[in-house]
Amino acid sequence: MSGLTVRRLVNGKESYVPGGVGFVDGQKVDPAAPWKMPVQRFMWADYGVHPGDIVQYSVVPVIGPDKDHLQLGTEQASALTAPITVSGKRSPHVSAYFNKGIVAARWVSEALKQVGKDAKLADLIKTPGNPLRNALSGLLRPQLLALLKEVKDNGGEIYAALYELNDPELIPALTALGKKCHLLLANGAFKPPDNDENKKVRQDLADRVDLSNRLASGDHFAHNKFVVFCDAGGKPQRVLTGSTNWTMTGLCTAGK
């Protein structure tokens, strides 16, 4: 056996989860037979589905003496899984959303090559709408923005405590709430000389939101990352918590 491929049905349509790595450098995906670049280890992930999709999976061996003579071992394939509807919802009141943040992955290297030889990841992830930024931030970034927009549209308010803040989409979403954004902002991973990683954004937000400062020192960090979302009457409706910093690197290069 040369590896395995993951056959999937997405809303009833058959496809294969991309393996992403060939047997030799420069090997191209065969659109008619993507399984010829199989998964070559016992771990895989599917980034090609979206919320609301109904999916099923089957693991199929890819066999052959070499890369040019591969075939599907359909007789040895596993049965299809039961249908699963893609959603972040874990229970009626708990949902989880994740980014990708896999900067060491081959597909990220290939995406950078397509941009150009001088492409820098730091430049791409700070550009709203950039395809690589969108891909790396996964479902987490759009969900954060959707929650903030919902509060704005409903005339609600938020209470947030953040460790670091510099993301070019999240900052405008916060400032759009004006004084209904009650923000407790720390000084991040403080370093000399001013010990305030958030100094610039703190100055920018000072008169635009209801800002309070929590400046730690010594061996302590104000490592909070949570938001309470309230309705127009000030009643809490949702709570967001997690390990993701509200920064470009937190959303796009650190898997959470």
Span of the ends, CA to CA: 33 Å
CATH class of the largest domain: Alpha Beta
Share of helical residues: 10-25%
Query: Would you report the number of β strands?
Result: 12
Strand content: 15-25%
Succession of helices and strands: EEEEEEEHHHHEHEHEEEH
Protein structure class: alpha+beta
Look at the structure and give the mean pLDDT. Answer: 91
CATH architecture of the largest domain: 2-Layer Sandwich
Please state the CA-atom Rg, rounded to the nearest Å.
22 Å
Number of domains: 2
Q: Count of DSSP helices?
A: 7
- Gross morphology is elongated
Low-confidence residue ranges: none
The CATH topology of the largest domain is given as Endonuclease, Chain A
Quick one: biggest sheet?
5 strands, antiparallel
Protein architecture, described:
It is a single chain. The protein has 256 residues and is α+β, with helices and mostly antiparallel strands. It has seven helices and twelve strands. It has helices spanning 106-115, 121-125, 131-136, 140-153, 170-175, 199-205, 248-252, and strands spanning 3-10, 13-17, 54-63, 71-72, 84-85, 89-91, 94-95, 157-162, 181-186, 210-214, 225-230, 236-241. Strands 1, 2, 3, 4 and 5 form a five-stranded antiparallel sheet that branches. Strands 10-9-8-11-12 form a five-stranded mixed sheet, with helices on one face. The protein is elongated and about 65 Å long.
